Amino acid sequence: MGKPLNLGIVGCGAIIAQYLDTFQRLDSVNLVAVADLDPSRAQAVAAAQPGVRALGVDELLTDDEVDLVLNLTIPVAHAEVALRAIAAGKDVYGEKPLAATTAEAKEVIDAARAAGVRVGCAPDTVLGTGIQTARKAIDDGLIGAPISATATMMTPGHERWHPNPDFYYVPGGGPLLDMGPYYVTALVTLLGPVKSVIGAASHTRTSRRIGSGPRTGETIPVTTDTHVTGVLVHESGALSTLVMSFDAVQTRSPNIEIHGETASLIVPDPNRFDGEVQVCTLTDQEAGWAILPVSAGYHDAGRGYGVADMAQTPEGQEHRANGDLAFHVLDVLESLLESAGSGTSVTVGTTVRRPSAVPLTGVPQPVV
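^ that's the sequence the OP posted. Answer follows.
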């Protein structure tokens, strides 16, 4: 509080561009260094960012100027980089998921608590006006007591556009661990933590053909499930039905619907910060769906607002895109896969407090 938080970024892949664009608009964060296993990528980023140094990974993790390490590495490296940063006394904010497994995620959370540093994690899309306007409608009682939700993500697969899609089709990948964090984080934000799940999963193809880039036409193996469905039982009693697929062609289903005693909501894409929230009420069904005015969330937000929210949160208070939330979401996803393998309901071993709501504002403000 009072001065910008100095950031060092580890991982200079495609996603970094979105963070860099956001940080240029925010006064609460200050990028000072970048690193990548491929030094040329770090050098290219630093050359385009005045005052930013290109360092080796070890150098960045121990650099005295860096307050927080933004971890944009691939999922299998999330825990390793986070633990090394924590050991150096740095706060950490990572891309989703928090780690490749809940066991690794627990190591990160435990290490951070022992070291007295903070952990944050994407997705921070739930801090935007789309999910937050829907949350305010629910919290204000617009739909009555929430009863159920549906969350649907259906695509033919990322190999059509991604030049190196291999990691989507091995254990630790698949639609659930790739896109599920957006949807489950939104469901927890809207309806609260999940206490148990039951799931089923399948995959229809044993290989995929790359459709773009220098490897176009190359076939890669599929060793993980590519269609996952399940029911999440929230502690509130609400039931969410989740469908995540790389095996479908297209869907007309809304990304998320929330159903209550007196109304239903259509919630926008949780992979975006904005979008229309629509409501249909029991007393006015003939009028159909009406668009709710934007009433909450960070306006015109982008990837990295979770970092800025973390920077603005006073010491001793919990920032919104926090590690405990990411740990719980990962636990829900892993429990779904466990249930799909066993054919039985699985109790989710963690819980979490819903993060505080975001009032309608232009840039991240201190949590009050």
